[in-house]
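Bit of a strange request maybe. I'm writing a small parser for structure token strings and I need a real example to test against, not something I typed by hand. Could someone generate the tokens for this chain?
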Amino acid sequence: MRKIAILGSTGSIGVNALNVIREMPDELQVVGLAAHSNSALVAAQAREFGAKIVSMFDASAAADLKTRLNGAARHFAPGVEGLCELAAHPDVDVVLTSVVGGVGFAPLLAAIRAGKTVALANKEPMVMAGAQFMREAERWGARIVPVDSEPSAIFQCVQGLNPDAKAAAPLKTIRRVILTASGGAFGKYTGDLAAVTPEQALKHPTWKMGKKITIDCATLMNKGFELIEIMNLFSLKREQVEIVIHPQSIFHSGVEFSDGSVLAQMGLPDMKLPIQYGMTFPARGARVVEPLDLFAVGNLEFRKPDFRRFPCLEIAREAARAGGGMPAVLSAADEVAVEAFLSGRLKFTDIPRVVENTMAGYQVSGGLPSFQEVVEIDAWARRKAEENLR
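Reply from user aminoacidic:
Good idea to test on real output. This should exercise your parser:
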């Protein structure tokens, strides 16, 4: 029986995780739940699954949850503090972290320093300081298992190469990684991207996700983030990651090894599969998704990304090349720009401009920044991005 804490239990990943746990009651048990502000849903989840520890990021929602649960669970403080306490709690075996953006930085560090297995669906911290997190995981005996579909696919393909490692270690037999992208809402769009609305950008053709990641998919920034995440997870160079547009989202990603063999992970576009694997790793549980029917799928398409039309991808590649604190600047500036687009303050095509201008104002110093320095870089980049918005 694995005891699970879910950070972000009311979002798409969290809800899907609970759907998986419903089908595996003898193997997975919910111990803790945390979310931003939907206290009514967290209360219902806690009652159904018997969660004993809970936390709400929003203070007023935290007070409301206490009233709703009426002593049925232990409540941690609102804000990041409560997320960290829950992530490091001794009763928890696996922390599924699916919060949005940089807010997941401190809880990820807390889980790692408590030696947890982390099922990671919050990629921004791994963009901000992935190499430092991997080093910390090795030090504390923690394990990071990526949950996003494509990083999970790559992680699955390399299992067996280094079975004793707690965290993904350098895998010298990898020649390259084939990282696929659906193309997002505008993969086949021929109109003026400057005029598109948030409603249009949120209509992803194959995946059902939260707003922030859906916009990042539309700009292809999400794939840039995954490029940096994968470099950090598997100690790869930027040139070893090839990004391929694959609209059907069946071939989730693949790995080419030194002898020319290519292993790929395939399946229908259903997040329950990588979520389940993240919570049960290294075991594989009973199937909780529909089986892949290749005859029904038919043809699979693969094409090169359009870097000119979707400049966020090249901007992320440049952040990866610069290294140091630049990926943290990239992540923070994108979070500010996406929120501005969703609130109607910014055009879709201005998202990369805000990010690029923010990066231009940052001077990379030598070596990897400390965790505290990354937090300070993140705060600086958010302020600078807001200035660039104005």
